[in-house]
Amino acid sequence: MSEHAQPLGSAASASTANESRKVIFASSLGTVFEWYDFFLYGALAAVISKQFFAGVNDTTAFIFALMAFAAGFVVRPFGALVFGRLGDMIGRKYTFLVTIILMGVATFCVGLLPTYASIGIAAPIILIVLRMLQGLALGGEYGGAATYVAEHAPPGKRGLHTSWIQSTATLGLLLSLLVVLACRYFTGDQFEVWGWRIPFLFSIVLLGISTWIRMSLHESPAFLKMKEEGKACKAPIRESFGKWENLKVVLIALFSINGGQAVTFYAAQFYVLFFLTQFLRMDPALANMLLIISVVIGAPFFILFGWLSDKVGRKPVLMLGLLLATALYFPIFKGLAHYTNPAMDQASQQAPITVLADPATCTFQFDPVGKARFDSPCDKVKTFLVKQGLPYSSAAAPAGSPVQVSVGDVRIDGFDEAALRGAVALAGYPSSADAAQVNKLMVVVLIVVLIFIAAMCYGPLAALMVELFPTRIRYTSMSLPYHIGNGWFGGFLPTVSFALVVYTGDIFYGLWYPVVVTGVSLIVGLFCLKETRHVDIEKN
Length: 540
What we know:
Blueprint lengths: L7 H7 L2 H27 L1 H8 L5 H17 L1 H15 L1 H21 L3 H4 L2 H31 L5 H30 L3 H5 L1 H19 L5 H8 L7 H6 L2 H36 L4 H15 L1 H13 L1 H27 L1 H9 L2 E5 L19 H11 L5 E4 L7 E4 L2 E4 L3 H10 L13 H19 L2 H8 L5 H17 L2 H12 L7 H17 L12
Parallel strand pairs: 1-2
Antiparallel strand pairs: 1-3, 3-4
Helix pairs in contact: 2-6, 2-8, 2-9, 2-11, 3-4, 4-8, 4-23, 4-24, 5-6, 5-8, 5-23, 6-8, 6-11, 8-9, 8-23, 9-15, 9-16, 9-22, 14-15, 14-17, 14-21, 14-23, 14-24, 14-25, 15-21, 16-17, 16-21, 17-18, 17-21, 17-25
């Protein structure tokens, strides 16, 4: 492909199928590797909580690990601003080349990082800094790759071509899960000691491959055309967000689709893993295997819905996905509970656990500095229940009343661990999900349904975002709402939902977060989002 500008239409018509495939392959492969780096942390959150947050109680450690996971998402909008500005000023190619180098180096360094046992509080601090560097990199990566592919795509095929970029997040997750599973197998009992480092160190190989591939790419023809015509934007941030006509589109994009799309994606591919392992007590290796199978089955849906959006429009596909998410999350996750741990499901129905206590004597089970003492009888009861993964409900007792725990018809006054263990065992509560009783087929079916819904929201998204904004500010304008949605609304899903479950004892209570977000996005999208399928981005 020539580096010289030519009319975009003629450039598209002159492009060979091989050239188009090269653009899609090179952009997608690099993005797969970058998502691998980013998602690797999520796949190893439980291990990392033990290695880097050992100075606090178990519940707090896991919440901290999820917060460190979320830290990468917090800074993604800032990465979108920094690299989006560079992408609109100096070009798409070199900007997202820089982002993948930054991501690869930060990920590799996580594999070399000493643990809490070795260097104390410095370990989690450095870990969070590295996660933030990953977030900055990803903030610039996605917008560049999506814009680059869309500006090379022929008219009528932008949804199909950019859907390959959309599928990379799922493929990156799949790659991370496969590498983690392989490392667990080969390192055995040593995985949680040192084997967990191998997937992070492996990223340096992927970095070399992706850097080499992307060096061979040429600049976007739309950017070259704009630059040669002297229309390049000198202040893309100010033009994107300082003018109401552009800012209005940014806000509509954020609240109509990006927020809702984000929680559908992370509910289907991250929260479901936490739900299976932390709340349903499924063996992590089995949970990873079932998720891998589901992801393999579900990945083509991203391409399907990108293609479908070229035929029927972006908005109908997106809105239907949001509607299904809002309506089906509770039934799907209740189905997962039933088919994953039927003994737990049956016990919780036949002998529900209720904690009756004076609310003033119960503390939220989160210790940000590791110094709080949860030593009231109510705190001790709830700490015990949370550590055992037992669902419970709370009831308010009159002020000054001692805590009382009901396990079905059994009443236990105060905190008596031996009596509690005996009562929950007698009621049939299992210590973990029995692999033999897990209905693996139905678990996979339900996860695939979640991925199907996520694909409806995510598959057409890149094409729609590119079509919403003009070439001169496209990289900046599309990147910020995307990464606020995915970084803040989606990235905090596991953390917020897990904390809500811990607080209430209801394993399904955390689902209110994604349901509210998708519901709001559905309403805003129906009334404010325009259809963009026929937009001419050459003139846009």
